[in-house]
Amino acid sequence: MAMALPVSRLDVPLGDRSVRVMRWIFRRHDESVVCELGLNRDDSAYELRIDPPWNPTGVGSELFNDAVAAFERHGVIERCLIEEGWSLESFESNVRR
What is the CATH number of domain 19-96? Predict the structure, then answer.
């Protein structure tokens, strides 16, 4: 059972601050899934977003109080994807202003 959540893009102007965003892209045949992990808009939590929005739970994104919990959840999602035949195509770690 692959899990994916709707994504809300980080396209809000961030002013003078910078935020590190990690992005994993998984591919299976001609489909792709993008997982992004970064701070939410007000820096109060870590937000894990997944696109495309075909997650059966209907959750738009998941918030975590600490980075460890966010990475653990990403690991669960990644394992589900791999078990269903997805493979990691690329990983990026960027700073956005």
Answer: 2.20.140
- Residue 13 has φ and ψ, to the nearest 5°, of -55, 135
Query: How do the pLDDT tens digits run along the chain, 97 residues long?
Result: 334 443 343 444 445 566 779 999 999 999 888 999 999 888 899 999 988 655 544 556 899 999 999 999 999 989 988 999 999 999 999 887 6
In angstroms, the CA 27 to CA 33 distance is 6
3-state DSSP call for residue 91?
A: strand
Sign of CA dihedral 4, 52, 9, 25: positive
